[in-house]
Write a structure and sequence with these properties.
single chain, 287 residues, mainly alpha, 13 helices
């Protein structure tokens, strides 16, 4: 693999992306939609206020809401604080899935065929697809984090949250992103049409997100779904991020959980990268 070839091809794709705001804005709107609209209108604590709030003193309603936040949402001060980790994972996974459309277009327009007859290694071509979509997803993840911070009653960081916590948040997100990026890039190189890619992505992405603790805690799931959520890498990433933004200074047990989540995500990223390289190289091999 040539690093120079990989960087040149990656830069080409990212330049196209930056010059096309129409490709960026829908992803940012998705973050705003989930945090501002879903996070506010579907806040479970609002149900208490609207249903029995008029029958109880305000201080009692406040105590009930605090207990719901503590028991269901890990002590998050607002539902959006709990939701941010899940929305980052959701935005990343969805955009990685559909990010392969550019790769399919390169095949249909003949650019990929030109690369395949040029002195460029198949591995460089594959990793250029990985790095371009990884970079896009990480930019959107950071944008989602910032959107959460600036929303009214939005993301409230724990008092112990510092620069190291910020780095650890995005290490967890990066591991999740790289694993899925390798898998979806391999899928994009393997299909021949955008319709096929969209069908596969829709089949994979939404079960991944909604069979996880990204939006709601897995404690509310039926038993058959709980074990799926527990091994879902989306849940592991969301759990790691929530530990850092909600608790800040971690206890020894929480630190152990965080380390376990990061090791799990690292193994996930390595395994899917190896599988992605294998599948991608086979898809790019001469027929």
């Amino acid at each position: 693999m040539s690093v120079r070839d990989t960087l040149v091809l990656t830069n080409r794709s990212l330049t196209k992306w930056v010059r096309n705001p129409a490709a960026i804005m829908p992803a940012l709107f998705m973050s705003v939609f989930w945090l501002a609209l879903f996070g506010s209108s579907f806040n479970p604590t609002n149900l208490v206020s609207s249903s029995i709030g008029s029958q109880l003193p305000p201080n009692v309603v406040s105590q009930i809401n605090s207990q719901i936040q503590a028991q269901m949402f890990g002590g998050a001060s607002t539902y959006i604080t709990y939701l941010v980790a899940g929305v980052i994972a959701l935005v990343v996974v969805i955009n990685l899935g559909f990010g392969g459309i550019d790769i399919v277009l390169d095949r249909q327009l003949g650019f990929l065929n030109t690369l395949l007859v040029a002195p460029v290694s198949r591995t460089s071509i594959f990793f250029s697809g990985v790095w371009q979509n990884f970079t896009k997803a990480m930019v959107l993840a950071l944008a989602t984090f910032i959107i959460g911070l600036i929303l009214p009653d939005g993301l409230k960081l724990a008092s112990g949250f510092g620069p190291l916590s910020f780095v650890e948040v995005f290490v967890a997100v990066a591991l999740l992103t790289f694993g899925f990026c390798s898998a979806f890039t391999a899928v994009a190189f393997s299909v021949k049409s955008i319709d096929s890619l969209v069908g596969i992505v829709n089949f994979l992405v939404f079960p991944l997100v909604f069979a996880s603790s990204a939006i709601f805690p897995s404690s509310s799931f039926p038993d058959w779904l709980k074990w799926i959520a527990e091994v879902n890498p989306v849940s592991k990433a969301a759990e790691a991020v929530r530990l850092l933004i909600i608790d800040g200074s971690l206890s020894s047990s929480e630190l152990s959980t965080l380390e376990g989540d990061l090791v799990y995500l690292l193994a996930f990223a390595v395994i899917l990268t190896l599988l992605g390289v294998y599948v991608g190289r086979r898809a790019l091999a001469p027929k």
